[in-house]
Amino acid sequence: MTYQRLPDTEFDIMNLIWDSEPPVTTSMVMDTLGRARGWKPQTVVTLFGRLVSRGFLAVKKGRGRSHQYRPLISRQDYLQMETNAFFDRYHGRSLGSLIASLNDGELTRDDIEELQSLIRQAKEGGERHG
């Protein structure tokens, strides 16, 4: 399934869901995130409805009027999709372009060592397959 980028508010809700033990209810999100942001309960219900309709959450009727929600995509899969979209859109899948945009004095020695390690691993993998 192809997923669309999540708006910030929906991403915040998904982060809370990914950090929780499923199933999750709207009241759980209201208690932990909604009240802190001054949301009305209907706002949380609306946001959950959007996440369901866009394929991020599965919903199951619970007791009474409650519903239980489970993520249909993992955080790792979503972040991979977002990273690939960013890489494609802003850097044309050019690793050099990405690194150049980071290299404005912000790369630490640890960052550089990590990049060098990735390059070594890629070379060794290519030598085994080539």
CATH architecture annotation name of the largest domain:
Orthogonal Bundle
Spatial strand order of the main sheet: 1-2
Indicate the low-confidence ranges by residue numbers. none
Give the helix/strand class.
mainly alpha
**Count of strand segments:** 2
Total tally of structural domains:
2
Beta-strand content bin = 5-15%
Question: How large is the radius of gyration?
Answer: 20 Å
Largest sheet: 2 strands, antiparallel
Average pLDDT for all residues: 89
CATH top-level class of the largest domain: Mainly Alpha
By oligomeric state, this entry counts as: single chain
If helices are DSSP runs of H or I spanning 4 or more residues, what is the number of helices? 6
How far apart are the termini? 33 Å
Shape: elongated
Order of helices and strands: HHHEEHHH
Helix content: 55-70%
CATH homologous superfamily label of the largest domain: Winged helix-like DNA-binding domain superfamily/Winged helix DNA-binding domain
